[in-house]
Amino acid sequence: MRKTIFADREKYHLFNRGVDKRKIFLDQSDLERFFKSMRMFNSVNPIGSLYEQGFSKKEKEQKEPLIKFIAFCLLPNHFHFIVEQLVEGGISEYMKRLLGGYTWYFNNRYRRAGALFQGAFKAVHIESNEQLLHVSAYVNLNDKQTSLGDRTAKSAKLLVKSSWKEYLNQDHNNQSLCLGKDIIIEQFKNSSEYKDFALASLKDIRLNKEKYKKLEN
Question: What does each C-alpha distance from 100 to 14, 39, 117 come to in angstroms?
């Protein structure tokens, strides 16, 4: 039984990792598949599978989303989201589609069977604006607060995708996903001020890991 009860217009930090800490993205195609799934499954009206849609087809605009993305980070063996639920049951339905669909894709591609993710996804209710700001820094810079930022091979570092560039207005590929980021950005004079805040927050997280235990991946 999940302890966290999802409520509309409330914000949550969602995360999960591969079962047995295994990698969930083995190459760039896996990463892009998951990212596109994040977009396509965010609709009140079911779309079926990406296979049925034709993965190469032009993405359609979804008029009524289940959730609003505020920040995200995808790494080789885990992911972090900050989302706001927009409709009743939106988070649960969205995550069921996303993780179930990606598990099917991954198992089919690599000829494996069984669970890909480590049980049900984890969720933490964000209860204050201060918590929201610090969690946004944690998620946006998650690849830098883990060992990935210092010791992992260059090829693994490439299997990272986050909303950090969106926050800094450096997303030049027109792949904006976090339409809810303004709730963070509007609290700062500009993106440079947010960058300074996030980097300082990251330093604090590194120095006070017990304090931020709930944020651990």
Answer: 16, 15, 10
Q: Which of the 8 DSSP states describes residue 117? A: B
Dihedral over Cα of 17, 18, 21, 22: its sign: negative
Rounded to an integer, what distance in angstroms lies between the CA atom of residue 177 and that of residue 162?
A: 10
Question: 170: pLDDT confidence band, cut at 50, 70 and 90?
Answer: confident
Smallest CA-to-CA distance from 11 within 106, 107, 194, 135 is with 135
Give the count of alpha carbons within 13 A of 93, CB side only: 17
Domains delineated in the chain: 11-215 (3.30.70)
Say if residues 25 and 159 touch (Cβ distance below 8 Å).
Answer: yes
As a whole number of angstroms, the distance between CA 13 and CA 79 comes to 11
What was the pLDDT predicted at 153? Answer: 47
> How long a stretch of residues is the chain?
217
**Sequence letter at residue 10:** E
The Cβ of residue 133 has, within 10 Å, a number of other Cβ atoms equal to: 19
Q: What is the mean pLDDT of residues 160-170?
A: 92
The span from the CA of 107 to the CA of 111, in Å, is 5
**Backbone angles phi and psi of 187, in degrees to 5:** -90, 0
